[in-house]
């Protein structure tokens, strides 16, 4: 087993210097820190979390890793951050937020410096290259999101299939004979998020079970330019009883504006359900019937699991799905037959 002494020998420093680099308790020159970190990476060294706990060196810091590419809806991320930090404060813990997308190397550095007791990892892809590294960090890691292979890590998310079913059933109850699912922009589709494919599959299954036709509109570019083709769907909406499902706040907004510009009254001529939080649903000019992904409940569940692991809780890792919730508002309330 690789030890701190091995790291010290390779880096040409004392073992105490290695400890200071990992704990951050003393100022170390950038050049020395770089040598120590390079040696740790070369030797694949990670400090033993159990040994730290026995030595009374728990840091009372939780790492939150959330990637923030340009297409991220920061407002949708805030309920997660607020709930995770609130749950941490209840345990007298601080949170260090890591937003730079450094992949596995970023996780290794975060755990290798011994500044966190556990990590919450967000923005999980179906095939996420960080997970194999996360499994071997020596600190508990909980995923918010469900990959194809969790690599033995606990996962928490909302029940995406149930959310899709709730949305379709609400539209069918308003008399919609055809469902239009507003899909993702090219940049979001390329990210490989599993819940996007799961939601689309859930909508398809629920529409089929209800005997409703399904059309998916996928923008061919990011932003408003990619939504220009939605005008073609508007012509069909006038001819049929159509229900629209929009998965993001941006899609909801662009759908409602496009329909309004063509004289289609949402909530009367067409029903619409959005997948978004209650606060977002109520922020539109016409309050939107929504299925909430319950980000605060998801975050609370993730933190309960995380602290159980930090406290020594054992058992097999598992997937925990939080039930979504539909709230009827003006965009479906007036469309009933």
Automatic annotation (TrEMBL):
Keywords of the record: DNA-binding, Transcription, Transcription regulation
PROSITE patterns (UniProt xref): HTH_LACI_2
Segments forming domain HTH lacI-type: 2-56
Any matching Pfam family: LacI
Family annotation (SMART domains): HTH_LACI
GO molecular function list: DNA binding
Secreted found in the keyword field: no
SUPFAM superfamilies on file: lambda repressor-like DNA-binding domains, Periplasmic binding protein-like I
Top-level taxon of origin: Bacteria
CDD domains per record: HTH_LacI
InterPro entries: HTH_LacI, LacI/GalR-like_sensor, Lambda_DNA-bd_dom_sf, Peripla_BP_I
UniProt protein name: LacI family DNA-binding transcriptional regulator
